[in-house]
């Protein structure tokens, strides 16, 4: 069935309303959360209205997916992972496929940010074998996402 487009909100080009009463949010974002009212009137009686509350669920995401870092043997290296999305967000670290979140060789600190959670993986005294791919995985109730950091120790 074809839908005839009626109008697009002047203030938000991601929202469209259709002749059949459907309100379409093209790409839902947090800014779309809130109350929407649907009003119907056919000229007979006072008409009807319905209040709808829209909540937007946000899976984890990263503004930076791939970092390249380098260090000198014996120096400290810090890898940072900032995940955004709905709370609670949990973050874990792996190196070459092995979970390193609980290994004493690595220091991990986490803190909340304005839009999510930041995790820092610190290697206090790097070794050549610390070179490799580190994967940060962020998880919440709506999914999980990974970001890579590549460390080269010379």
UniProtKB/TrEMBL annotation:
A GO CC term attached to the entry: axon
Domain Ig-like: 60-152
PROSITE patterns (UniProt xref): IG_LIKE (PS50835)
Pfam families: I-set
InterPro entries (UniProt xref): Cell_Adh-Cytoskel_Orgn, Ig-like_dom, Ig-like_dom_sf, Ig-like_fold, Ig_I-set, Ig_sub, Ig_sub2
GO biological process, one term: synapse organization
Gene Ontology MF term list: axon guidance receptor activity
Superkingdom of the source species: Eukaryota
Keyword annotations of the record: Disulfide bond, Immunoglobulin domain, Signal
Membrane-traversing stretches: none
Name of the protein described by the UniProt record: Ig-like domain-containing protein
Gene source species: Meganyctiphanes norvegica
């Amino acid at each position: 069935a074809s839908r005839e487009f009626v109008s697009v909100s002047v203030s938000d080009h991601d929202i469209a309303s259709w002749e059949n009463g459907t309100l379409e949010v093209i790409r839902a974002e947090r800014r779309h959360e809130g109350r929407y009212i649907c009003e119907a009137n056919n000229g007979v009686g006072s008409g009807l209205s319905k209040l709808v509350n829209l909540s937007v669920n946000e899976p984890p995401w990263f503004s930076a997916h791939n970092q390249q870092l380098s260090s000198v043997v014996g120096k400290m290296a810090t890898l940072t992972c900032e995940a955004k999305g709905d709370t609670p967000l949990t973050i874990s670290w792996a190196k070459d496929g092995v979970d390193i979140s609980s290994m004493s060789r690595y220091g991990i600190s986490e803190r909340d940010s304005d839009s999510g959670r930041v995790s820092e993986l610190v290697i206090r005294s790097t070794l050549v074998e610390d070179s490799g791919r580190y994967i940060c995985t962020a998880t919440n109730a709506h999914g999980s996402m990974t970001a890579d950091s590549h460390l080269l120790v010379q």
